[in-house]
């Protein structure tokens, strides 16, 4: 029973559909719709990979799942549900990570087309590389709210997913988070850090105490020295042990923790007077005397939807602190909690903590509903957008199977039609970037850093794995001797981890040869040594040195964004089919956090607000349309 | 559709959880309006199934699926509620069990009667009427009835790679939102730009389908030439199929592909002559991509149509006024209004 009948499509295309084997990566919002379309269109050999399990918040759009499926594997349930559309289809479901070595080059080579239905950049980068290495066409897609896009990546003929610089992950300077928050998001980030300090994995980058090395303070060395003195007085030696150990010692006493965080630490911050010359100084709070005390709240509105009073926040603080303490204790001696937006107490904790801190700093308070969006990096998602995008994925796939890759387009779904009345905007897909550090002949990039501050560990974890998306890199110095500094074999180079790059005589101009066996990817890195990078950055990766200019034009735009944007109407960016200056939006489905990140494979990493926060840069686009179109850019 | 206070009661915790990702997009008010809406969906082929799926998922109050016809072979390639069901059952009836599973909070019923034989009064119980795979005459009749009774009217169809949707919302009020970047205060870092959303109430007046189709294309003026150029080909292409449907009381079918192809070629010439437009607006080989309902095309057109229903009900965002025209041969998806 072929779903498609003769006469609907050309015979040869129909034959190709019947015999083609497809790989679908992702069985979420786009994936459910896509699987349905593929099965109905007559594809009968489909493999499906998704690591995720079903959550109740998926059910408004991921129509292959129902309430009784919550907690089960998306891939498995999607397969079972889709088989009802055509019981004769052969669907193989993998409840697994796409980063798994099981899905190597040979696996990818077994397919005619790979279809991405992903929600995060790390996995997209990885599949991009696998498809380039295997030379298999990839249909890439993404949605965010009303917006969506589809494009086709074919080695040698189109740009790849990584041809254009990706907007960096949105991060905030440590001193903004620790000393001078000015927006709700700063308080939310701080609250999540506090959660990890109290209950989770200790990460020195997530310190929540006042930061005495704030650049604003170091302008005055004397002041800083004074501040250091003051610190000792103010916190009475608390700083010497970890926040976690201290909290355990006092039995997670809500009043004590509250008063330390929101009274004593704030008083201490106030002593750094330079900070408050041009800012509203924070106002310390005392647990026993809070705004909203004794008031009866209007409880008719939903708890999640209304903004709690400070007193309510403190009450919630007491409650969830105790609940989280019990949860922690139940996990044994070295147990820890991982923050999860869907965990009631963890979410309450971040809501009340960030609101109390917001109050202290005179920042508007937010509802739990709103804070959940920020803390959980939630991208809104609806069935219709996913359905449209999944339909377009199949339309492009049909062109590939008909041998018409050159007719493939990058198609954008707009929220409202553009000035040419297009709701769907097809654009010519750009040619490969000859300097792309992924798909060019000899991939190469520059990494700007201070070789006397960066360790091998940082090179491996933050630069190669996290930023450059390698899975298990091998690195040798191109010094004629082939000194190996990082090996993907366990136990071979661990002793190097805490050494500095300069310990290996790596300096300005040194070339590193990096290899990732799984991705079949080799990259040459040129080290550019600088003493100091701005904005507290540890390093910067630049694909093409001509793009790297001193940041005199620093206007807060993330690196790369200006390029992406600036290119939009010009010829280097996706070009509208008929020379209209259509607006081109870039986005990313990016639902939820990076549950499928490589971090899950190699090293446990708590879900961080890394991924989607940066992706969903809504902006008013000032192109001709001028209709307030929302634009979201990926990368 | 009346969104009076009585229907604006609170969303439950269960609903908030289920609809979380869309409430974050269109807000609680829109969700409250959705849960009060009753929809009649006529035509349960591939496009109907897509529309039903999408609006049931969105959380309307109730939907009636109406189709007098039985499942046939073509349904295998796009009607996923019944794609593996045995031919012979009524399409609407057979769709209900699967449709219900999509969202237990929505009341899903079926009606196997022929909509053209239904009394006018029957239609007045609905807030929205959406007509698919039905002849133009029925679309026009129901559109007029809807307009007179302040019911939101939609229609649409898919033929192979082509599809259209039409909306007549009468006099429609909606909330328009615009996100603007707030200029940073003096002395502040530029990176501290924040967004603010400005909401305004807008009004829009729609025209009837009949008036759109009566449009006189015959004037030999530069303006008309421009209009012809700007009108998406999918408009004229889908009109040929609509003409077939009107004249023969059925859609072109793969079983009769040869005869139907000839008839489509005839109708192309006839219709374009009647409209007074040059034949080239519809490519000669258009019929090669117009048989059956292609699943991805149903998904695209059904996605747009359902989103328009959601917009109309939630009274949020500017609706498409009034055609949406999709041509999968060249990836075009346009909004168009014929009578301007």
TrEMBL record, chain A:
Its pathway is: Protein modification; protein sumoylation
In which domain of life is the source organism classified? Eukaryota
Renumbered to this chain, region (Disordered) spans 543-635
Coiled-coil features, chain-numbered ranges: none
Major subcellular location class:
nucleus
**One MF term in GO for this entry?**
SUMO activating enzyme activity
User: Where does this protein have compositionally biased stretches of type Acidic residues?
Assistant: 577-592
Q: Where is the composition biased (Basic and acidic residues)?
A: 550-560
Q: Which residues form the THIF-type NAD/FAD binding fold domain?
A: 10-436
Q: Which Pfam families match?
A: ThiF, UAE_UbL
Q: Catalytic site residues? A: 175
Q: Which UniProt keywords apply?
A: ATP-binding, Metal-binding, Nucleotide-binding, Nucleus, Transferase, Ubl conjugation pathway, Zinc
Task: List the biased-composition ranges (Polar residues).
Answer: 561-573
Q: Which residues bind Zn(2+)?
A: 160, 163, 436, 439
Annotated GO biological process: protein sumoylation
- Subcellular location(s) per record: Nucleus
Q: Which GO terms describe its cellular component?
A: cytoplasm; SUMO activating enzyme complex
Name all Ubiquitin/SUMO-activating enzyme ubiquitin-like domain ranges.
Answer: 447-533
- Amino acids binding ATP: 26-31, 50, 58-61, 74, 97-98, 119-124
Can you tell me which family this protein belongs to?
Belongs to the ubiquitin-activating E1 family.
Subunit structure comment from the entry: Heterodimer of SAE1 and UBA2/SAE2. The heterodimer corresponds to the two domains that are encoded on a single polypeptide chain in ubiquitin-activating enzyme E1. Interacts with UBE2I.
Output this protein's name: SUMO-activating enzyme subunit
Q: Which organism is it from?
A: Lymnaea stagnalis
Automatic annotation (TrEMBL), chain B:
Q: Output the SUPFAM superfamilies linked to this UniProt entry.
A: Activating enzymes of the ubiquitin-like proteins
Q: Which GO terms describe its biological process?
A: protein sumoylation
Task: Please give the coiled-coil regions recorded for this protein.
Answer: none
Q: Where in the cell is it found?
A: Nucleus
Annotated Gene Ontology MF terms? SUMO activating enzyme activity
* CDD domains named among the record's database cross-references: Aos1_SUMO
Asked whether the UniProt record includes Nucleus among its keywords, one would answer yes
Q: Name one Pfam family in it.
A: ThiF
Supply the InterPro entries for this chain: ThiF/MoeB/HesA, ThiF_NAD_FAD-bd, Ubiquitin-activating_enz, UBQ/SUMO-activ_enz_E1-like
Which parts of the sequence belong to the THIF-type NAD/FAD binding fold domain? 19-336
**Entry keyword Nucleus:** yes
Main localization, broad class: nucleus
Q: PANTHER family, per this entry? A: SUMO-ACTIVATING ENZYME SUBUNIT 1, UBIQUITIN-ACTIVATING ENZYME E1
- Assembly and partners? Heterodimer of SAE1 and UBA2/SAE2. The heterodimer corresponds to the two domains that are encoded on a single polypeptide chain in ubiquitin-activating enzyme E1. Interacts with UBE2I.
User: What name appears for this protein in its UniProt entry?
Assistant: SUMO-activating enzyme subunit 1
Native organism = Lymnaea stagnalis
